[in-house]
Amino acid sequence: MATPRVVFLAPSYPPEMIQYTRGLAEVGAQVFGVGDTPREGLPKEVRRYLYDYLQVPRILDEEDVMNRVTQWLRGREIDHVLSNWEPLVILAARLRERWGIPGMSADVVRGFRDKEIMKERVRAAGLRVPRSRRVVTERETRAAAEEIGFPLILKPIAGAGSADTYRVTSNAELDAAIAAMRHVTEASCEEYVEGEEFTYDTISIGGVPAYENVASYLPKPIEMRSIEWISPVIITVKDMYQPKLAPGVELGRKVLKALGMGDGFTHMEWFLTPKGEAVFGEIGGRPGGAHLVDQMNYTSDIDLFREWARVAVHRSFEAKAPRKYNVGIIFKRALGRGKITRIDGLGDWLREAGPWAVEEKLLRPGTQRRNWKNTLLSDGHVVVRHPDWEEAHRLSFAAATGIRMYAE
Ligand SMILES: Nc1ncnc2c1ncn2[C@@H]1O[C@H](COP(=O)(O)OP(=O)(O)OP(=O)(O)O)[C@@H](O)[C@H]1O
Ligand SMILES: [Mg+2]
């Protein structure tokens, strides 16, 4: 078989993309990277996996990138155009369409990107989706709020990272949310769904999951993103096929069909209501961020970066993925501003967790704090795993409360 040639958009940013680039090279692809990082600025560990690289001035300028890449590749046959970074999934689809390459169309990908189109399609398949309206003007927002009632959620149509997402429980809060969202051009106004929140993640082939995962958000992302003192915890559920979670797994599989999923990663979020019903939240046609793929790898001692590449290039998933552990990631936020000065309780926690602690990447004293509003990564994380859910949960919360970081 001829060597598969893959255009991979943004091969080194965000940093975990380096791992997918590695995966592609390891399954035998020639990787043509396209990004806005200068060639000289590419990290060493990614260079060796790139067959060639084009630097573009603005990676988000779709027309410009399409023209430059087309020009650059003239005369070379390309087999796949891929991206695992949310802002570029439409661009990848448009390039595929332009060059007549198989893969999901831009229209299908829009169902994974535009939160109203997504919900319309999922709703049309008879699945449980929060009632919602697309709103542009203030008048439309107020009318939608009237119709949907409090509590409700206002969020951007193509948001990420819970940015500009507001829970609104009164007219006063509605006024405040409208004022805070002036810069957002299009928003979703939707019914607030009570309950626990989970992920449903897959690597799919022709819309059928070859790999599945469920992770539990503790607490819900909207709270992780709005309350600074919280140490967000996310735990993959080893026993993801337990009856309690079955409605979510079933919902997830149906959502993939409803949206016409093809090959690759998906990352869905869903709510489990107090009555035990699964309600759709949102879905992306790409892997979850904030180290979720590392967590899934620790869950099964597997390399999903490479397995994704095998699916994307060869349409086969070969690895065994036994669910061995519940894997918790705990993000920490330092108290104070500026540079990290001190970490307390880490030694005690590491001793307590013993061999179950698998990663410790807290920012060291002297490092500038990250902006916790912009990135769930916060001021670093620890990862712990255990075959027993209760113990994984206990050790995760021991890190959430016992490890304390301080800044100036
Ligand atoms: N209808 C809803 N009912 C209850 N909570 C909601 C609803 N919509 C959103 N949320 C909360 O807000 C969070 C962010 O919303 P959503 O996932 O749609 O946006 P996002 O910015 O794409 O998120 P992220 O990138 O963090 O996954 C959700 O994870 C959930 O906690
Ligand atoms: Mg989300």
Word description of this protein:
The chain is α+β, with helices and mostly antiparallel strands. It has 4 domains: 5-110, Rossmann fold (3-Layer(aba) Sandwich), CATH 3.40.50; 131-191, ATP-grasp fold, A domain (Dna Ligase, domain 1), CATH 3.30.1490; 195-324, ATP-grasp fold, B domain (D-amino Acid Aminotransferase, Chain A, domain 1); 325-408. It contains 14 helices and 18 strands. An 8-stranded antiparallel sheet has the order 13-12-9-10-11-14-17-16, sandwiched between helices. The chain has a 4-stranded parallel sheet with strand order 3-2-1-4. A 4-stranded antiparallel sheet has the order 5-8-6-7, with helices on both faces. Strand 12 (264-272) and strand 13 form a beta hairpin. Helix 13 (346-353) runs antiparallel to helix 14 (389-402). The longest helix is centred in the middle third of the chain and has 14 residues, at 246-259. The protein is globular, with a radius of gyration of 21 Å. The site of adenosine-5'-triphosphate has 20 residues, from strand 6, strand 8, helix 9 and strand 13.
